[in-house]
């Protein structure tokens, strides 16, 4: 799509949908407060999103921004008199009081609204890229109890490990609120279990792209039961073993019945006695050095499936944008309830930036991921959130400038260049001191995800 007469209409439609989702009356109605309250649920949520859009800004920075934008606040004697305190205690307490379902509900509505404004990627079906990741949290007693740290032969780490399974919609780039749980300890939840929880929250008739970690019967069966389709990768050895019991239907394509193995039955006793799926196996040579071995519940041509599956790597960049650009890997919360609210507010911020990027990409006539997320984020945070007292005409002018600037921040195309997944270690606090002198010299570090 290129810039044209329809662009302003699309922009206005998108903004109208967002305003309806972020309506203060609706959000405040979910948790009524007293008439004298300054930090209403809408104000608290706005501040949490502000913190995330400003790269994990501190509570003090958020409150300072609020004092400079008092038009956001409800009518109040302290506001009109200019005596509202700049201390962070009131905001911190209001954030703790905020009901946890409110950020979740807003994040879900923002996702649904933005995805609904984007055409599906595969005919009438929406495609989601599914993957797992982890972050470490503040070493508080509560978080350590709920999300136990990693352990090894040398002992136990101090850092609680929070396990996520994410799903990003391919056409829009928007992320649904992830399913989460502990990665270690007696209550640990596997990546597969989190993925199964996610299925019921995806739009009907979705297609799920996933790596070989999700190429197991329980996930494919769960997806089919939820009305979805699956496209995953297999190892060559496993693919060759499966082909032996399959029927060739075309060059490089086989069809077979997929039944749960003894291992599947042992780990998933809830599977029906006669559980079975019809799947297609595709061997697709995409280059002289690379071959894809795919299994899918979709009856589609190999070339189409290979072209679709190459987008699975997009989730690696998307997770990086969520965790590093918006610094969701550095959540400040010290309780389970607070970090969950921070996660949902972070997803609101992420999806709003993705929406701005999509509108800018439509204007530039390129795919959304061709534009830099970090570049779009910086323009959105610095320009659109720098003041809230602009008139409607001024705000519209600034938004036009953001779209034009974001459209200019294209990611360079470098054919043949690849970025293999690497392990990024947590930096030591005292790099100049000999490790043997540190009191925690043998403390194990949590396993670093490579997203």
Automatic annotation (TrEMBL):
Positions of region (Disordered): 410-451
Q: Which residues form a coiled coil?
A: none
Regions of compositional bias (Basic residues) in chain numbering: 423-432
Q: Which residues form the signal peptide?
A: none
Q: Which residues form the Transposase IS4-like domain?
A: 124-352
Q: Specify the domain of life of the species encoding this protein.
A: Bacteria
Q: Which InterPro entries match?
A: RNaseH-like_sf, Transpos_IS4, Transposase_11
**Which PANTHER family does the annotation name?**
TRANSPOSASE INSG FOR INSERTION SEQUENCE ELEMENT IS4-RELATED (PTHR37529:SF1)
Q: Report what the protein is called.
A: IS4 family transposase
Organism from which the protein derives: Gemmata algarum
């Amino acid at each position: 799509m290129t810039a044209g007469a329809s662009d302003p209409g699309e922009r206005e439609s998108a903004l109208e949908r967002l305003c309806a989702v972020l309506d203060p009356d609706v959000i405040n109605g979910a948790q009524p407060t007293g008439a004298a309250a300054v930090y209403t649920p809408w104000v608290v949520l706005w501040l949490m999103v502000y913190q995330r859009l400003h790269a994990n800004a501190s509570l003090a920075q958020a409150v300072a921004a609020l004092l400079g934008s008092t038009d956001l606040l409800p009518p109040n004697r302290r506001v009109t008199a200019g005596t509202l305190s700049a201390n962070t205690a009131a905001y911190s307490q209001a954030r703790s009081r905020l009901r946890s379902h409110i950020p979740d509900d807003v994040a879900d509505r923002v996702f649904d609204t933005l995805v609904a404004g984007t055409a599906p990627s595969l005919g009438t079906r929406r495609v989601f890229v599914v993957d797992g990741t982890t972050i470490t949290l503040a070493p508080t007693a509560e978080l350590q109890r709920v999300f136990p740290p990693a352990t090894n032969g040398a002992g136990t780490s101090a850092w609680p490990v929070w396990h996520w399974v994410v799903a990003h919609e391919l056409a829009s780039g928007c992320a649904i609120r992830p399913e989460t749980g502990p990665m270690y300890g007696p209550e640990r939840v596997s990546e597969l279990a989190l993925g199964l929880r996610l299925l019921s929250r995806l739009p009907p008739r979705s297609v799920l792209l996933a790596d070989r970690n999700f190429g197991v019967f329980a996930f494919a069966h769960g997806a089919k039961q939820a009305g979805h389709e699956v496209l995953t990768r297999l190892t060559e050895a496993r693919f060759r073993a499966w082909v032996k019991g399959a029927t060739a239907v075309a060059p490089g394509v086989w069809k077979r019945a997929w039944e749960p193995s003894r291992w599947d039955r042992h780990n998933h006793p809830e599977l029906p006695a006669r559980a079975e799926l019809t799947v297609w196996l595709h061997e697709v040579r995409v280059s002289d050095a690379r071959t894809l071995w795919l299994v899918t519940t979709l009856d589609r041509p190999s070339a189409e499936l290979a072209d679709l599956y190459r987008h699975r790597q997009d989730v690696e960049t998307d997770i990086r944008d969520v965790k590093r650009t918006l610094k969701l890997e550095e959540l400040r919360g010290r309780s389970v309830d607070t970090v969950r609210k921070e996660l949902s507010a972070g997803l609101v911020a992420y999806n709003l930036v993705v929406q701005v990027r999509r509108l800018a990409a439509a204007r530039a006539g390129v795919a959304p991921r061709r534009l830099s997320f970090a570049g779009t984020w910086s323009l959105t945070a610095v320009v659109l959130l720098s003041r809230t007292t602009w008139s409607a005409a001024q705000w519209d002018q600034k938004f036009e400038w953001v779209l034009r600037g974001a459209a200019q921040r294209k990611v360079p195309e470098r054919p043949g260049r690849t970025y293999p997944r690497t392990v990024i270690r947590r930096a030591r606090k005292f790099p100049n001191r000999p490790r043997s002198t540190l009191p925690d010299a043998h403390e194990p570090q949590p396993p670093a995800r490579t997203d």
